[in-house]
Design goal:
Blueprint lengths: L15 E5 L3 E2 L5 E2 L2 E8 L9 E5 L26 E2 L4 E2 L4 E5 L31 H15 L6 E5 L1 H12 L6 E5 L7 H15 L17 H15 L2 H7 L4 E3 L11 E2 H14 L4 H13 L10 H5 L5 E7 L7 H13 L4 E6 L13 H17 L4
Parallel strand pairs: 5-8, 5-9, 6-7, 9-10, 10-13, 13-14
Antiparallel strand pairs: 1-4, 2-3, 4-8, 11-12
Length: 385
Amino acid sequence: MNTPDHSKSVGIVTPRVAHFDQPLMLACGRELAGYQLVYETYGELNEQRSKAILVCHALSGHHHAAGYHSEDDKRPGWWEECIGPGKPIDTDRFYVVSLNNLGGCHGSTGPTSTNPETGKPWGPDFPPLRARDWVHSQARLADFLGIDCWAAIVGGSLGGMQAMRWALEYPDRVKHCVVIAAALKLSAQNLAFNEVARQAILSDPDFMDGRYLDRDTIPSQGLALARMVGHITYLSDNAMANKFGRDLRSGSLEQGVDDQAEFQVQSYLRYQGTQFSGSFDANTYILMTRALDYFDLAREYGNDPVAAFGKARCSFLVISFSTDWRFSPQRSREIVDALIAADRPVTYAEIEADEGHDAFLLPIPRYLEVFGAYMRRVGVESNAP
């Protein structure tokens, strides 16, 4: 068996757990009496505690952003391309923190956790969350780790939205905000995609009003369909054409052949759906997509993003990708225009890439160059060696 090359990786990492007993007031008006957050760290924190980076994950992400959990682990963390020695988020330079958000299903308190009042899984009774709830819980994690101010907060997609919320909620606790493939709020089309995905889960007979864990089952078909819908939106037309075209996996399109033909793209989507349904929780997916839907950075500022960014004190890097139609370059330019009008320092790059929304996860040379150059600047400003 081939073992992974750890020489350009952070290597073997072990998740940690932070417990919080102080109640957390949520945006919905409910209070969470206590909770835990699972997180990983990469690199070493300097004595001045000035070079810490927070990584915020996207919709289906988690704490395992880089490295491996064992020598036999074949698959590294989800942002291995960007976190590690000599990479844009350079662990020889920075101390990096990556967590599983509150409400997640990879160890942090969420719908699969035990409700202390019932002794059963929270399920659909878990409180609805907003991006600001994640930010407030992340701020407590920063306190727990002894980090007063982040050198940078970095996120792609929904993670970028959290980074922007940080800049408004805790303007004195972040020096740089890196927003990749994100938006000020979801478009109607994005809201529609999320609703279709949720309906796929809700209509699965095994969903059982969200109490499937009590009955020892999971709505695997609904979760798989939700993932398939989402995955289509993460890829561009060019990416799907280049990856699959109209190639067949089985059968034939020739006349006189009675066998049903199966295209490669069909098989791929089913595989992605099946893998996802075995690793993610349905109630968590519903909770996360609703939090994404509800995000609107400027709502409480008279729907004026310039006024919203007027609260920020940090510098910004905004990156978009040319073929991303889920969070298009136009959405990123709206962020940039508002930042300029608010007199905030901002650097913007639109990366030519065929990979669509998923491009932020991939080793696209120009993307890594821009991202890395900005993070080197962050390192200089944070007095990192």
